[in-house]
Amino acid sequence: MQSSRPNHDVLVVDDSPVYRQLIEELVSGHGYTALLAANGAEALQILSEKAPALVITDCMLPDLSGLEICERIRADKVAPYTYVILISGHQDKTSVIRGLEAGADDYLVKPFDHAEMLARLGVGRRIVELHRKLEDKSAQLEEVASTDVLTGLPNRRAIEEWANRQLSGAARHGFPIWVVLGDLDSFKEVNDTFGHGAGDIVLRTFADTLRRLTRISDMCGRLGGDEFLIVISHVSATNIEIAINRFRELFGSLSFPFAGQSVSVSCTFGVAGSESGTIQDFDALVRRADEMLYQAKRAGKNRVCLTKLG
Q1: 112 Cβ neighbours under 8 A, 6+ residues apart
Q2: How do residues 44-57 score in pLDDT, each as one tens digit?
Q3: Which of 55, 66, 257, 288 is the most exposed place for a label (fewest CB within 10 A)?
Q4: CA 161, CA 129: separation in Å to the nearest integer?
Q5: What integer pLDDT is reported at residue 7 of this predicted model?
Q6: Angle of helix 93-102 versus helix 66-75 axis, rounded to 10
Q7: How far is it, in rounded angstroms, from Cα 221 to Cα 229?
Q8: What are the backbone angles phi and psi of residue 81, rounded to the nearest 5°?
Q9: Peptide bond just before 154 cis, omega within 30 deg
Q10: Residue 206 near residue 228, CB atoms below 8 Å
Q11: How far apart are the C-alpha atoms of 61 and 164, rounded to whole Å?
Q12: For 89-148, how does the pLDDT look when each residue is reduced to its tens digit (9 = 90+)?
């Protein structure tokens, strides 16, 4: 009876066409698809192109050994986990130990029992599936750790990691890069007058508008409270000011129906950056943008203040 579980590719590496065919016929129909390689070079090519979850490889091959294939697989820290079964005509303990030390998960001796091979593949499949679940859970936790819960935007940590990569690129290629701090004006009054639920609506609307107007090559996120941060590159000082003012005017034109009233909320921005890409200190850019934001607030709010550094 064929397994109802997801299909798994099995890379079979053996210079013997008889053993390749034997293993292919054995695993077919049991929820596996066999990918065949007659030598180490072919095996590495298939590993690179197909990334099979399971590998069955003979120890002795005409070019690379099965041990070397194991070592190559384990040296790749980026690829998903691959379960490796070594097969050999030798059953001495030294060969087994060398295989396991090279990174193999299991070891079978030729001629092997067919039922035992399938059972050991089943163990490998369960381990691979467990690794995949753990990797998915880890990715989900990483996303949660870098995402603002209320708005779904990246948080300060995620922005900083991304911005530092952009700053390195700006220094290398000399393109402009800007840090923009945005703050909602009189946001406390919205919370105090209409409640925190109304304040959350304003924050989510601001975030959604910001997300829609931010290019895929740039990044926006929430620092906390009613303060947001944008990192923008490849834009001149004149055009960055025009773009932020356009956003400010768009958001200010929106109307929120709170308690039977039509409420508008304005926003203020501080911008700091470099047209030559020479500034590498992200925290320094954030501090200067914050100074510009404070300056804009003191000048009457609902405006943009910009400074160029370098």
Answers
A1: 87
A2: 999 999 999 999 99
A3: 257
A4: 30
A5: 57
A6: 30
A7: 5
A8: -65, 135
A9: no
A10: yes
A11: 46
A12: 877 788 888 888 989 999 999 899 999 999 999 999 999 988 888 888 877 767 667 789
Which residues are bridge partners to 204 per DSSP? none
Q: Which domains does the chain show, CATH number per domain?
A: 8-144 (3.40.50.2300), 156-308 (3.30.70.270)
Cβ contacts of residue 121 below 8 Å, gap of 6+?
A: 10, 27, 30, 32, 54, 56, 85
Token reading at 51 = 């990334």
SS3 157: helix
With a CB cutoff of 8 Å and minimum separation 6, the contacts of 74 are 102, 103
Report helix, strand or coil for 274: strand
Residues of the chain with pLDDT under 70: 1-7, 141, 143-144, 310
Q: Which of 226, 281, 283, 290 is catalytic?
A: 226
Q: What is the pTM of this model?
A: 0.61
Q: Is 39 exposed, middle or buried (0-12, 13-18, 19+ CB in 10 A)?
A: middle
The two three-digit tokens of residue 190, written as one number: 């919205």
Look at residue 4 in the predicted model and tell me its pLDDT.
38
Assess contact for 84 and 128: CB atoms under 8 A. Answer: no
Lookup: tokens for 17:
């066409």
Output the pLDDT for position 2.
38
Query: Exposed/middle/buried for 153, CB within 10 Å: 0-12, 13-18, 19+?
Result: buried
Pairwise CA distance, residues 268 & 181, whole Å? 8
Handedness of CA 260, 301, 192, 196 (dihedral sign): positive
